[in-house]
Write a structure and sequence with these properties.
There is one protein chain. The protein is α/β, with parallel strands linked by helices and about 290 residues long. It has a domain of about 190 residues: Uracil-DNA Glycosylase, subunit E. Helices cover about 35% and strands about 10% of the residues. It is built from nine helices and eight strands. The protein has a six-stranded mixed β-sheet with strand order 3-5-4-6-8-7, sandwiched between helices. It is globular, with a radius of gyration of 19 Å. The structure holds iron/sulfur cluster. The site of iron/sulfur cluster (SF4) has 16 residues, from α3 and α6.
């Protein structure tokens, strides 16, 4: 049997573009990838039924991030994210790919939660950090920087020193899906990670939903979490706002914003001014 260095049985090791350390694709937990929240001992959800148990059992956001980042509960998405990680894209030839779920990231005591859709195959799925390394991320991080929430204008690679103040970013589906379209069952399987993340944000006042998928997912999470969601369910729109109430916590405003996808930004459906305006609204609500 051929198991020499060029054999397909031997995973290829490639240098991380920032640190030069060698990694397999996908990256094994706790092997030194910048900002990897997990270790080799982090418990793994291998079936849908394990997700709520492990999510609820996470005592804080650090533990939750670690568990999110090793989840393997959706067979189709695990296959896809790992296949993309192994094959890569020509533009990133020679780079290792993270190839794992993308945990929530940012200020653990932030008042604003930016909600996306799911990681991009060659963005977060490559870099290991939400909205990092793709065009959508260029837009949202530049806007967050203009508004004073992000330490740097660009976010291209984990370990670059980027930071968020008062803002956290998470996606209701944590693995890159084919065609950016998760199945309803995958959204529902991933939901306990999202629910627990919301629960563990002590100062949350605003959830900024990027697109209709994020809007619907956030309303579903709010209802599961015991927040009062108006009936009929509020419709998504750019700049739409709805206050969600719960007896034991301050109210939270859900604000809609067109997604920062290239489909929207290239066509002018979403402009920088529109994004800045919605972020300004979020800031006002967060301080109210
Ligand atoms: S989408 Fe969510 S639940 Fe499914 S494998 Fe990824 S992290 Fe786990």
């Amino acid at each position: 049997m051929d198991n020499g260095p060029d054999s397909p049985l031997v995973p290829q090791m490639l240098p991380h573009p920032l640190t030069g350390q060698l990694f397999t694709s996908p990256v094994a937990p706790g092997t030194g990838w910048p900002e990897d929240p997990a270790s080799a001992d982090t418990p793994v959800a291998r079936r849908a039924a394990a997700v709520p148990k492990l999510a609820r059992g996470a005592q804080d956001l650090a533990e939750l991030e670690a568990r999110q980042s090793v989840c393997a509960a959706c067979p189709r998405l695990v296959d896809w994210r790992e296949e993309v990680a192994r094959t890569g894209r020509r533009a990133y030839r020679g780079q290792p790919y993270w190839g794992r779920p993308i945990p929530g990231w940012g200020d653990r005591s932030g008042r604003i939660l930016v909600v996306g859709l799911a990681p991009a195959a060659h963005g977060g799925n490559r870099t290991g950090r939400v909205f990092t390394g793709d065009r959508s991320g260029d837009w949202i991080f530049a806007a967050l920087h203009r508004a004073g929430y992000a330490g740097q204008e660009r976010s291209e690679i984990a370990g670059d020193g980027q930071s968020l103040r008062d803002v956290r970013i998470a996606a209701p589906v944590r693995c890159a899906p084919p065609d950016n379209k998760p199945l309803p069952v995958e959204r529902d399987t991933c939901a306990p990670w999202f629910d627990r993340e919301i629960e563990l944000l002590p100062n949350l006042r605003v959830m900024l939903a990027l697109g209709a998928f994020a809007w619907d997912s956030t309303l579903r999470a709010a209802r599961r979490g015991g927040w009062t969601v108006p009936v009929p369910r509020p419709r998504f729109g750019h700049g739409a706002q709805v206050e969600l109430l719960r007896e034991d916590r301050p109210g939270v405003f859900l604000i809609g914003c067109y997604h920062v996808s290239q489909q929207n930004t290239f066509t002018g459906r979403l402009t920088e001014a529109m994004l800045d305006s919605v972020l300004a609204q979020a800031g006002v609500r967060a301080r109210s």
